[in-house]
Amino acid sequence: MRQRARHRADDDEETMTMAVGGTGRVALATATVGIDRDVDLPLIVGALRARGLDAEAVAWDTEGHDWSAYDSVVIRSTWDYWRRLDTFLARADDISAVTRLYNPAGVVRWNSDKRYLADLADRGVPTVPTVFIAPGEKIVLPEQGHFVVKPTVSAGSRGAARYAEGMTAGAERHVEQLHAAGETAMVQPYLPRIAEGERALVHFGGTFSHALRKGPVLTDIGVIDNNRVAHPGLTAHRPSRAEAEVAAAALRAVPGQGPALFARVDLAVGDDGTPVVMELELIEPNLFLTHSPDGLGRFADTIQRWTATGRP
Length: 312
Hints:
Blueprint lengths: L1 H18 L5 E6 L1 H6 L2 H11 L3 E6 L12 E4 L9 H14 L1 E3 L2 H7 L4 H7 L8 E3 L13 E5 L9 E3 L4 H13 L4 E5 L8 E7 L2 E8 L20 E2 L4 H12 L9 E8 L5 E7 L11 H17 L3
Parallel strand pairs: 1-2, 1-3, 3-4
Antiparallel strand pairs: 5-8, 6-7, 6-8, 9-10, 9-12, 10-11, 12-13
Protein backbone atom coordinates (compact mmCIF):
# COMPACT_ATOMS: atom_id res chain seq x y z
CA MET A 1 0.00 0.00 0.00
CA ARG A 2 2.81 2.37 0.99
CA GLN A 3 4.74 1.33 -2.13
CA ARG A 4 1.77 2.11 -4.39
CA ALA A 5 1.39 5.48 -2.64
CA ARG A 6 5.07 6.21 -3.13
CA HIS A 7 4.84 5.33 -6.84
CA ARG A 8 1.77 7.55 -7.12
CA ALA A 9 3.66 10.41 -5.47
CA ASP A 10 6.57 9.88 -7.85
CA ASP A 11 4.18 9.95 -10.81
CA ASP A 12 2.60 13.15 -9.51
CA GLU A 13 6.04 14.76 -9.12
CA GLU A 14 7.00 13.74 -12.67
CA THR A 15 3.75 15.16 -14.03
CA MET A 16 4.38 18.45 -12.22
CA THR A 17 7.93 18.63 -13.60
CA MET A 18 6.71 18.08 -17.15
CA ALA A 19 4.05 20.74 -16.67
CA VAL A 20 6.63 23.43 -15.97
CA GLY A 21 8.76 22.49 -18.96
CA GLY A 22 10.83 19.57 -17.72
CA THR A 23 14.26 19.38 -16.16
CA GLY A 24 17.57 19.54 -17.97
CA ARG A 25 21.23 20.41 -17.67
CA VAL A 26 22.24 23.94 -18.58
CA ALA A 27 25.72 25.41 -18.82
CA LEU A 28 26.19 29.16 -18.61
CA ALA A 29 29.32 29.86 -20.64
CA THR A 30 31.49 32.48 -18.99
CA ALA A 31 35.16 33.35 -18.61
CA THR A 32 37.47 33.27 -15.63
CA VAL A 33 36.99 37.01 -15.18
CA GLY A 34 33.26 36.55 -15.67
CA ILE A 35 32.96 34.01 -12.89
CA ASP A 36 34.56 36.50 -10.52
CA ARG A 37 32.82 39.69 -11.65
CA ASP A 38 29.52 38.83 -13.33
CA VAL A 39 26.98 39.80 -10.67
CA ASP A 40 24.15 38.36 -12.77
CA LEU A 41 25.71 34.91 -13.00
CA PRO A 42 24.85 33.52 -9.55
CA LEU A 43 21.37 34.99 -9.86
CA ILE A 44 20.77 33.16 -13.13
CA VAL A 45 22.14 29.88 -11.77
CA GLY A 46 19.91 30.21 -8.71
CA ALA A 47 16.81 31.05 -10.76
CA LEU A 48 17.37 28.08 -13.07
CA ARG A 49 17.92 25.68 -10.18
CA ALA A 50 14.75 26.98 -8.54
CA ARG A 51 12.97 25.92 -11.73
CA GLY A 52 14.33 22.39 -11.50
CA LEU A 53 17.21 22.67 -13.94
CA ASP A 54 20.73 21.46 -13.22
CA ALA A 55 22.59 24.67 -13.98
CA GLU A 56 26.24 25.62 -13.61
CA ALA A 57 28.68 28.22 -14.87
CA VAL A 58 31.60 26.97 -16.96
CA ALA A 59 34.47 28.95 -18.48
CA TRP A 60 34.20 28.69 -22.26
CA ASP A 61 37.87 27.81 -22.71
CA THR A 62 37.95 24.97 -20.17
CA GLU A 63 40.08 22.28 -21.78
CA GLY A 64 38.49 18.88 -22.33
CA HIS A 65 35.09 19.89 -20.99
CA ASP A 66 32.22 17.64 -22.07
CA TRP A 67 29.71 20.09 -23.50
CA SER A 68 27.59 17.22 -24.79
CA ALA A 69 26.52 16.55 -21.20
CA TYR A 70 24.21 19.59 -21.34
CA ASP A 71 20.80 19.99 -22.93
CA SER A 72 21.68 23.60 -23.71
CA VAL A 73 24.60 26.00 -23.35
CA VAL A 74 23.80 29.69 -22.88
CA ILE A 75 26.56 32.19 -23.56
CA ARG A 76 26.85 34.72 -20.80
CA SER A 77 29.94 36.58 -19.58
CA THR A 78 32.54 35.38 -22.09
CA TRP A 79 34.05 38.82 -21.79
CA ASP A 80 37.50 37.87 -23.07
CA TYR A 81 36.32 36.33 -26.35
CA TRP A 82 37.69 39.19 -28.47
CA ARG A 83 41.26 38.43 -27.36
CA ARG A 84 41.09 35.00 -29.06
CA LEU A 85 38.23 35.41 -31.47
CA ASP A 86 39.12 32.50 -33.78
CA THR A 87 39.44 30.15 -30.81
CA PHE A 88 36.15 31.36 -29.37
CA LEU A 89 34.29 30.92 -32.65
CA ALA A 90 35.76 27.44 -33.05
CA ARG A 91 34.56 26.57 -29.55
CA ALA A 92 31.08 27.83 -30.44
CA ASP A 93 31.10 25.55 -33.48
CA ASP A 94 32.27 22.61 -31.36
CA ILE A 95 29.51 23.15 -28.80
CA SER A 96 26.90 23.49 -31.52
CA ALA A 97 27.96 20.11 -32.93
CA VAL A 98 27.04 18.30 -29.69
CA THR A 99 24.22 20.32 -28.11
CA ARG A 100 22.09 23.45 -28.47
CA LEU A 101 23.99 26.73 -28.16
CA TYR A 102 22.27 30.03 -27.42
CA ASN A 103 22.81 32.25 -29.16
CA PRO A 104 23.66 30.03 -32.18
CA ALA A 105 27.21 29.85 -33.52
CA GLY A 106 26.24 31.51 -36.81
CA VAL A 107 24.69 34.47 -35.01
CA VAL A 108 27.72 34.72 -32.72
CA ARG A 109 30.08 34.76 -35.70
CA TRP A 110 28.05 37.50 -37.43
CA ASN A 111 27.79 39.61 -34.28
CA SER A 112 31.46 39.28 -33.29
CA ASP A 113 32.54 41.93 -35.82
CA LYS A 114 30.82 45.31 -35.77
CA ARG A 115 30.71 45.37 -39.54
CA TYR A 116 27.29 43.87 -38.90
CA LEU A 117 26.19 47.52 -38.60
CA ALA A 118 26.54 47.77 -42.37
CA ASP A 119 24.22 44.78 -42.73
CA LEU A 120 21.66 46.46 -40.49
CA ALA A 121 21.88 49.68 -42.49
CA ASP A 122 21.47 47.73 -45.74
CA ARG A 123 18.29 46.22 -44.27
CA GLY A 124 16.92 49.70 -43.60
CA VAL A 125 17.60 49.75 -39.86
CA PRO A 126 18.53 53.26 -38.62
CA THR A 127 22.13 53.06 -37.39
CA VAL A 128 24.90 55.45 -36.46
CA PRO A 129 26.66 56.34 -39.76
CA THR A 130 29.83 54.24 -39.82
CA VAL A 131 32.88 54.10 -42.07
CA PHE A 132 35.06 50.98 -41.93
CA ILE A 133 38.77 51.21 -42.74
CA ALA A 134 40.55 47.90 -43.22
CA PRO A 135 44.35 47.57 -43.12
CA GLY A 136 45.82 48.90 -46.35
CA GLU A 137 42.86 51.16 -47.11
CA LYS A 138 43.15 54.94 -47.24
CA ILE A 139 42.43 56.66 -43.94
CA VAL A 140 39.71 59.26 -44.37
CA LEU A 141 38.46 61.05 -41.26
CA PRO A 142 35.69 63.61 -40.67
CA GLU A 143 36.66 67.22 -41.16
CA GLN A 144 33.95 68.60 -38.89
CA GLY A 145 32.55 67.71 -35.51
CA HIS A 146 33.63 65.20 -32.88
CA PHE A 147 34.03 61.59 -33.95
CA VAL A 148 34.94 58.17 -32.54
CA VAL A 149 37.57 55.68 -33.68
CA LYS A 150 37.50 52.07 -32.48
CA PRO A 151 38.20 48.53 -33.69
CA THR A 152 35.45 46.41 -35.20
CA VAL A 153 36.21 43.57 -32.79
CA SER A 154 36.15 44.61 -29.15
CA ALA A 155 34.24 44.47 -25.90
CA GLY A 156 33.03 47.48 -23.97
CA SER A 157 35.01 50.53 -25.07
CA ARG A 158 38.27 48.67 -25.58
CA GLY A 159 40.42 50.49 -28.11
CA ALA A 160 37.94 53.35 -28.53
CA ALA A 161 38.60 57.07 -28.38
CA ARG A 162 36.72 60.27 -29.07
CA TYR A 163 38.36 63.02 -31.11
CA ALA A 164 37.50 66.67 -31.54
CA GLU A 165 37.64 68.68 -34.74
CA GLY A 166 41.26 69.34 -35.72
CA MET A 167 42.61 66.19 -34.00
CA THR A 168 43.05 64.21 -37.21
CA ALA A 169 46.76 63.54 -36.61
CA GLY A 170 46.06 61.70 -33.34
CA ALA A 171 43.12 59.89 -34.88
CA GLU A 172 45.24 58.77 -37.83
CA ARG A 173 47.83 57.35 -35.44
CA HIS A 174 45.04 55.52 -33.65
CA VAL A 175 43.84 53.94 -36.91
CA GLU A 176 47.41 53.06 -37.86
CA GLN A 177 47.88 51.32 -34.50
CA LEU A 178 44.77 49.25 -35.11
CA HIS A 179 45.96 48.39 -38.61
CA ALA A 180 49.39 47.38 -37.29
CA ALA A 181 47.60 44.92 -35.02
CA GLY A 182 45.71 43.53 -38.01
CA GLU A 183 42.43 45.14 -36.98
CA THR A 184 39.85 46.99 -39.03
CA ALA A 185 38.99 50.45 -37.72
CA MET A 186 35.55 52.01 -37.66
CA VAL A 187 34.83 55.74 -37.57
CA GLN A 188 31.54 57.19 -36.36
CA PRO A 189 30.32 60.70 -35.58
CA TYR A 190 30.09 61.43 -31.87
CA LEU A 191 26.40 62.17 -31.53
CA PRO A 192 25.87 65.46 -29.64
CA ARG A 193 22.75 64.12 -27.93
CA ILE A 194 24.63 61.16 -26.45
CA ALA A 195 24.71 63.23 -23.26
CA GLU A 196 21.04 62.28 -22.90
CA GLY A 197 22.23 58.70 -22.45
CA GLU A 198 22.24 55.47 -24.42
CA ARG A 199 19.12 53.33 -24.22
CA ALA A 200 19.71 49.62 -23.62
CA LEU A 201 16.66 47.56 -24.60
CA VAL A 202 16.84 43.94 -23.42
CA HIS A 203 14.88 41.19 -25.16
CA PHE A 204 14.38 37.50 -24.34
CA GLY A 205 13.13 35.15 -27.02
CA GLY A 206 12.38 38.12 -29.24
CA THR A 207 10.12 39.74 -26.64
CA PHE A 208 10.99 43.02 -24.91
CA SER A 209 11.81 42.58 -21.22
CA HIS A 210 13.24 45.78 -19.74
CA ALA A 211 15.37 48.82 -20.55
CA LEU A 212 17.89 51.08 -18.89
CA ARG A 213 19.48 54.38 -19.74
CA LYS A 214 23.28 54.60 -19.54
CA GLY A 215 25.42 57.69 -19.20
CA PRO A 216 28.05 58.55 -21.87
CA VAL A 217 31.40 56.77 -21.63
CA LEU A 218 33.91 58.46 -23.99
CA THR A 219 34.09 61.62 -21.93
CA ASP A 220 37.85 62.26 -22.20
CA ILE A 221 38.75 63.60 -25.63
CA GLY A 222 41.73 62.07 -27.43
CA VAL A 223 42.29 59.33 -24.85
CA ILE A 224 42.12 55.66 -25.89
CA ASP A 225 40.44 53.31 -23.42
CA ASN A 226 39.29 56.20 -21.23
CA ASN A 227 36.12 54.43 -20.07
CA ARG A 228 36.59 54.14 -16.31
CA VAL A 229 33.08 52.84 -15.61
CA ALA A 230 31.60 50.15 -17.86
CA HIS A 231 27.99 51.31 -17.50
CA PRO A 232 27.84 54.70 -15.77
CA GLY A 233 24.67 56.34 -14.52
CA LEU A 234 22.26 53.43 -14.94
CA THR A 235 18.60 54.37 -14.55
CA ALA A 236 15.35 52.65 -15.49
CA HIS A 237 14.04 53.62 -18.91
CA ARG A 238 10.68 53.29 -20.61
CA PRO A 239 11.28 53.08 -24.36
CA SER A 240 9.34 55.28 -26.70
CA ARG A 241 7.36 53.69 -29.51
CA ALA A 242 10.04 54.79 -31.97
CA GLU A 243 12.78 53.19 -29.88
CA ALA A 244 10.84 49.95 -29.61
CA GLU A 245 10.27 49.88 -33.36
CA VAL A 246 13.94 50.46 -34.18
CA ALA A 247 15.00 47.74 -31.74
CA ALA A 248 12.48 45.32 -33.25
CA ALA A 249 13.72 46.13 -36.76
CA ALA A 250 17.30 45.41 -35.70
CA LEU A 251 16.32 42.04 -34.25
CA ARG A 252 14.41 41.10 -37.41
CA ALA A 253 17.58 41.76 -39.40
CA VAL A 254 19.63 39.19 -37.46
CA PRO A 255 20.56 36.27 -39.75
CA GLY A 256 19.25 32.81 -39.00
CA GLN A 257 15.89 31.34 -38.20
CA GLY A 258 13.81 32.55 -35.30
CA PRO A 259 14.56 35.03 -32.53
CA ALA A 260 17.67 35.16 -30.38
CA LEU A 261 17.34 33.78 -26.87
CA PHE A 262 18.78 37.02 -25.53
CA ALA A 263 19.61 40.36 -27.10
CA ARG A 264 20.44 43.88 -26.03
CA VAL A 265 19.87 46.70 -28.49
CA ASP A 266 21.79 49.86 -27.62
CA LEU A 267 20.23 53.00 -29.05
CA ALA A 268 21.15 56.67 -29.10
CA VAL A 269 19.28 59.78 -30.16
CA GLY A 270 20.32 61.11 -33.55
CA ASP A 271 20.68 64.79 -34.40
CA ASP A 272 17.10 64.87 -35.64
CA GLY A 273 15.75 63.30 -32.45
CA THR A 274 15.11 59.86 -33.90
CA PRO A 275 16.65 56.69 -32.37
CA VAL A 276 19.55 54.94 -34.08
CA VAL A 277 21.28 51.66 -33.30
CA MET A 278 24.72 52.03 -31.76
CA GLU A 279 25.27 48.32 -31.11
CA LEU A 280 23.33 45.09 -31.24
CA GLU A 281 24.66 42.81 -28.48
CA LEU A 282 24.06 39.10 -29.09
CA ILE A 283 27.12 37.46 -27.53
CA GLU A 284 27.91 38.48 -23.96
CA PRO A 285 26.00 41.63 -23.06
CA ASN A 286 25.34 42.74 -19.53
CA LEU A 287 21.60 42.20 -19.19
CA PHE A 288 21.32 44.35 -16.05
CA LEU A 289 19.34 41.71 -14.18
CA THR A 290 20.23 43.20 -10.80
CA HIS A 291 18.27 46.24 -11.95
CA SER A 292 15.27 44.21 -13.10
CA PRO A 293 14.00 41.38 -10.85
CA ASP A 294 11.24 40.69 -13.36
CA GLY A 295 13.87 40.49 -16.07
CA LEU A 296 15.69 37.74 -14.17
CA GLY A 297 12.51 35.69 -14.02
CA ARG A 298 11.77 36.24 -17.71
CA PHE A 299 15.29 35.20 -18.68
CA ALA A 300 15.17 32.05 -16.55
CA ASP A 301 11.73 31.16 -17.92
CA THR A 302 12.99 31.56 -21.48
CA ILE A 303 16.02 29.35 -20.84
CA GLN A 304 13.82 26.73 -19.19
CA ARG A 305 11.34 26.71 -22.05
CA TRP A 306 13.98 26.58 -24.78
CA THR A 307 15.93 23.86 -22.95
CA ALA A 308 12.80 21.72 -22.72
CA THR A 309 11.58 22.25 -26.27
CA GLY A 310 14.68 23.16 -28.28
CA ARG A 311 12.92 26.18 -29.70
CA PRO A 312 10.94 29.30 -28.63
